[in-house]
Amino acid sequence: MKTALITGITGQDGSYMAEFLLNKGYQVYGLSRRTSTVTTERISHIIDKIKIVEGDLVDQHSLTHIIKDVKPQEVYNLAAQSFVPSSFSQPVLTGEITALGVIRMLEAVRIGYPKAKFYQASSSEMFGKAQEVPQSEKTPFYPRSPYGVAKLYGHWITVNYRESYNLFAVSGICFNHESPRRGTEFVTRKISQAVARIKLGKQKKLVLGNIDAKRDWGYALDYMEAMWLMLQQKKAQDFVIGTGETHSVKEFAKLAFEVVGINNWEDYIEVNRTHFRPAEVDLLIADNTKAKKILKWQPKTSFRKLIDIMVKSDLEREAKV
């Protein structure tokens, strides 16, 4: 039986990855910070099938001990301060967790169990002010937020440890991936939740920032397979993971309202400039040619289907509250 350690197991990606690996017969350990409030909602249905270990990405000692004790064949570093707007208001914290947290995990693997295969969750936000469209593994980086800069450090330090210490360490440069488990502060989930609430008469308006911003949005569940496949290769290498399609926030909102039968969707939207980013990224769209060729991976869920899944899930959730 293979053993895997997932950091950020209580988050969107961590919870889906835990499910994915359990279905493949893994013994799954999840790293979780001790907090005074329970944050296991996303993994409550599998909590009895996984082992939670207490540790923190800012505490090197705890990470090294966990790696030594667990000796995982695979490590998925999915923990981060991942909300871009918060990275502008909390830049140092973002750097501490999203950047330096990666090197602490790599050090833990190097010292504690260097046989482990290590996956780092890199981000399309590293491309930021896109130097070419679409973006591939060879596209130069130009991050436009403290989050993007922190992710870039995590990305390059992973490359450095692979080359310096011969670790099997890879980065998946994932474009935006959404689901019903996405935090409500993210624009896609903000939209799906608001649409459900408007349909049920609980809310009157959906307040958004830049509705012309475009992203490459996929379904989080599809991306777990790509992450796993990267650690099953003989050679450690990085991959861009995305759909290769781009859609605007406005388009996402329009389709979300269509799911609940509201056609005059524009009447419910209010644009507020305080929600605009200090520095907006340009057109982010994935060139996933390498992933298709080497990993034999491609997304299974369409943009329209993703929105349908998210809105219906929020309708069900809101109807119970």
TrEMBL record:
InterPro entries: GDP_Man_deHydtase (IPR006368), NAD(P)-bd_dom (IPR016040), NAD(P)-bd_dom_sf (IPR036291)
UniProt cross-references to Gene3D superfamilies, sorted A to Z: NAD(P)-binding Rossmann-like Domain (3.40.50.720), UDP-galactose 4-epimerase, domain 1 (3.90.25.10)
Sequence ranges assigned to domain NAD(P)-binding in this UniProt record: 5-310
Superkingdom classification of source: Bacteria
GO biological process: 'de novo' GDP-L-fucose biosynthetic process
Pfam families in the cross-refs: GDP_Man_Dehyd
Alphabetic keyword roster: Lyase, NADP
Reactions listed under catalytic activity: GDP-alpha-D-mannose = GDP-4-dehydro-alpha-D-rhamnose + H2O
Keyword Lyase: yes
Required co-factors: NADP(+)
EC numbers for this chain: 4.2.1.47
MF terms (GO), sorted A to Z: GDP-mannose 4,6-dehydratase activity; NADP+ binding
Entry's family note: Belongs to the NAD(P)-dependent epimerase/dehydratase family. GDP-mannose 4,6-dehydratase subfamily.
Role summary: Catalyzes the conversion of GDP-D-mannose to GDP-4-dehydro-6-deoxy-D-mannose.
Name of the molecule in the record: GDP-mannose 4,6-dehydratase
Organism whose genome encodes this protein: Candidatus Beckwithbacteria bacterium CG10_big_fil_rev_8_21_14_0_10_34_10
Gene name linked to the record: gmd
